[in-house]
Amino acid sequence: TSLAESLGWKNTFRVVGVASLGFVALWVLLAANTPAECWFISEEELQYLDKHVTKPKVEPKGTSTEETSSNSFIGMPFEMAIHRGLWAIFIAHIAFNFGAYYLTNWSPTYYKDVLGLEPIDAKYHLMMPHITNLLVRVINPMLVTAVAARGFPLVFSRKLFTCVGYVMAGACLAPVYALRSLNPWISTVLFSIANGFFGMAPLGFKSNYLDVTEKYVGIVAGYGNTLGTVASIIGPKLTAATLEKTEQNWYVVLGTVVGVNLLVSINYAMNAVTFPIEKMIAKKGKEKE
Question: Most CB atoms within 10 A, among 50, 51, 245, 255?
């Protein structure tokens, strides 16, 4: 908003575009396929990785049970593609993008239409949720370490962060519209805490992508990100349609986000797993033989 005030909207988008291209250039310069190909890694770091990181097994084509049962069209075994543990992650990812993009895309409209603040006047209000989200992401590793140090199993950790993130974000969003007549900073505090908890949820379900498969991580993550992107596209349009149909009833909009969060939390708590699904399928196949 400050850039738009100083440079105009066109130049603001140009600045963002140039910054994005700069990030791409930086990534191309620093990225590598393997640690050994990284130009700035030290020999000591390479030795540490070689000692402590398990190298993936390369099996001859056609010898793996998982490979022979893999569906070439979807890139993984069909039994894996429909597994409840995998879909617990997908659904959580969809809900995350739906809720996160609501906060990103519709907060300026809410502040203008409901709280009576123009974007230039609401710039600090709109900035605070992103700051709290960033702060939570910074402390996430410490939270994981604290839970693991107490001896809780990995599946408990995944469920804890996902469910607490969604439930508490929903709890903060639920009273926002009812408190619209109070100081706008009340709404900002609630939005900020909610977005902070949204920053906690991926610590569970996004990390879970690495748990449920050893062989199909890229494929599984690709499907999840695609489904999440679809939710990112549909979510704002659904919000616009809801506001139009309900005559600007924000109770319905916020209630939808809250309801989705609660349902996703229940589904994830019931169905999330932390074992490689393809190995489980292969084991069951051998038992039947």
Answer: 255
